[in-house]
Amino acid sequence: xxxxxxxxxxxxxxxxxxxxxxxxxxxxxxxIIVTFSDTNLYxxxxxxxxxxxxxxxxxxxxxxxxxxxxKIISKENIDIVHSHSYWTNIISRLATPKKKxxxxxxxxxxxxxxxxxxxxxLQLIIDKxxxxxxxxxxxxxxxxxxxxxxxFPKGKNSCLPNFVNTPTNSELKLYPYTKGTPLKIVAVGNxxxxxxxxxxxxxxxxxxxxxxxxxVFGEGESLQVYITELAKRNITALKFCGKQxxxxxxxQQYNLYCSCSTSETFGIxxxxxxxxxxPVLISDIPAFKEIxxxxxxxxxxxxxxxxxxxxxxxxxxxxxxxxxxxxxxxxKYSKPVFLKGLRDIYQ
Length: 347
Fold this sequence. Notes:
By secondary structure, the protein is an alpha/beta fold. It has helices at residues 14-22, 43-46, 62-76, 86-95, 110-113, 118-129, 142-151, 200-206, 223-233, 248-251, 268-275, 286-291, 304-317, 323-332, 335-346; strands at 2-7, 30-35, 50-53, 80-83, 101-106, 135-139, 157-159, 183-188, 212-217, 238-242, 256-259, 280-283, 297-299. The chain is built from 15 helices and 13 strands. α3 crosses α4 and α8 packs across α13. The longest helix has 15 residues, at 62-76. The N and C termini lie close together (10 Å).
């Protein structure tokens, strides 16, 4: 079969990582990649495939982009269209012939976390109104699947949890933290509001008396804002380091992985930290509770004081991980499990 994969861009993000990891494994199919922009951080992978850039804003150039996508689907004789974001989902429905298979992947939870926003309510109305005869909605977690069942109860919905691309033959090695020793914390994620980094600044202002450091790797419009604020407050133990690819070698330089997110649909960076053998301290949001090992330490989301208390507790009492729990999580969210599920959907 010939499959068209439609995504906003090929920049850094969970959906982009997922797509560029699974396409090369599906060698029994032919693949076309279509984006809204020419941003591409995965050229070593995408150079193997035909790629199209629609070069347009989906809100401002909606009908133009629908027309462009229709032509690509016809020219390439596509069998299945598989999209990965809100606007690629909507445009794909309007561009894909009714006899073609259409898969809309849901990597977002806005219909749960942001429904008070009138723009999100409008997007939901559009999502409910614009359909397709052969549409299948796919959730990236049980949490998102619950959202789909709530808002599209009569639709064809399924759950296909994300995966982390870790070698299946690698031996898991745990890196426990010994109490009372210098504590180095790492966080990985774009500098955007839903990552919850605002709680870190007041927390580290109170942590100055402790030998505790934290590095945040990610990019975004607010990066310089945080750097400036930290300098203003003379906080040196917390650093926003800019973009850096998350690798086991990077993560294993630290004693603890942390995520302060207030909204996630899955948690690829969290699974990567588990694969690297790090203890984790994360916010108590639904997606994290779904995938995290039982021994995970949680703090109340958006609560700087609770984050501070949990970090101090780790410093004073230590933290470790349970090997059996970590192995279970890595098996559940592994590439072979994902690929089997995706092949079933395609068939």
